[in-house]
# Entry
Amino acid sequence: MRPSFFHHLHPPTIPADQARWRHTLGAGGTAVFLMLILGVTGILEMFYYIPTPEEAALSVQTITYHVPFGGFIRNLHYWSAQILLIVSAIHLLRVVFTAAYSHPRRFNYLLGLALFVLSILLDFTGYILRWDVDICYPLLTGTNLIKTIPFIGDFFHRLAIGGGEACSTGLLRMYVWHIFGLTLPIIILGIWHAFRVRRDGGIAVPPPQARTDNARISRNELVRREVLAMFIVGIALILLSSSVPAPIAPAMDSTPAAIREAASQSAKAPWFFLWVQQMLKWGDPFIFGIVIPFGILILVAIIPYIFPKPADSDIGTWFPKSNRLAQITMGLVSLIVILLTLLANAN
Amino acid sequence: MTQISRRDFLKLTRNGILYLSGLLATGGLLRFLSYAPTAEQKTEFDLGSADQYPLGSRTSIPEIPALLIHAESGFTALSLTCTHLGCTLEPNETGFACPCHNSAFDSDGNVTHGPAVKPLQVLRIEITDDRNIKVFTA
# Structure
């Protein structure tokens, strides 16, 4: 059989170990699939979304309540975005817990981390595009947080929302960042990330001499498994999107007084930033809102560079002894973020 | 000083020019993106005749947002923007509370609970000759 285009995207054969669910959890592939859904549903939403402060929230209502299947498309977009963050986090944990970041994959680890950060920013800007009463305080505090950075804060604030006061302005910038300024880099880095996976020798497994199982699978089998994974995730997304609607809130009246009146009813950050909001309650916004979150990001980024290189035979095995320090670091970071999120949700 | 070959010199020049133009273009792009197109924010608010605010009254002006206090000593306007990250404060029994990060202030605007550290801003007030109150936020 002559391979199709989709088959050609894969190597002719790969070690069977690289494609086991219990090894990869299917997380990276699921992330790619979710991004494709996000692209398609996002473009569909653009047919109706109007990025002006007066009409944005109303156009979201139009999509949700009037356009045939509009609510469903929007739910798909919303749920894909939320699940993407969770799947990306699982992917990152898998890579650290199986020592897969080790040389020569250190650079690709950084690319992956950049993709994760871009996904978070895309999720945040997408949330802001609702432009209803719920988005005001997260946008206001988020952009005021940028301003607290010494020397360059004001510059980045203008870059983000074009100056002015967050709740009455900034929508156009958020729109362009969302559909272009963040999306273009995530596409480029995403393709680069996938290319590097192959260039670096496929998914991390021990070298041939250290493998217990030298079986290989063909690209037909690989594509079959990918299609199966897409099918399962697709069904789950369809079920979720037809039963749990994406959040929506009343449009805000664009007078400052009305914005403030409405916004004070919902001062909660979107779920993936709850941990930062919780820390902000503790003191200086620059320290707790910028230095510590970025410190954590840098700590995660330098894991492959500061800890001892895992043993070759350990690469691609779960929780090997030779990268304990990296596992503990990553485990603690995840635990802290989860605890802070629960704490923020509790009060 | 070691001799540099013509080939190396040209290569260095070429790379130098390329990097320099890349740097200039990036600088230009950042300047392009950092322009603030939005109109100046309103900083002057006319609250109408001072006689509407009797002695002892504390009136919330959500438009600013601020609290106009008329005491024995005269008029004061207290900003209701939290000094931490800018959310609007909500009045309660003891003063004001911030819905975003739990900062609290007493009724004079002093911090009673962090994370805010600065007291609420007292806004400049002008009473015109025809007894109109004007509040300035900047």
Q: What stands out?
A: The CA atoms of residues 92 and 148 of chain A lie 30 Å apart. The mean pLDDT of chain A is 90. The domain at 5-346 of chain A is CATH 1.20.810.10 (Cytochrome Bc1 Complex; Chain C).
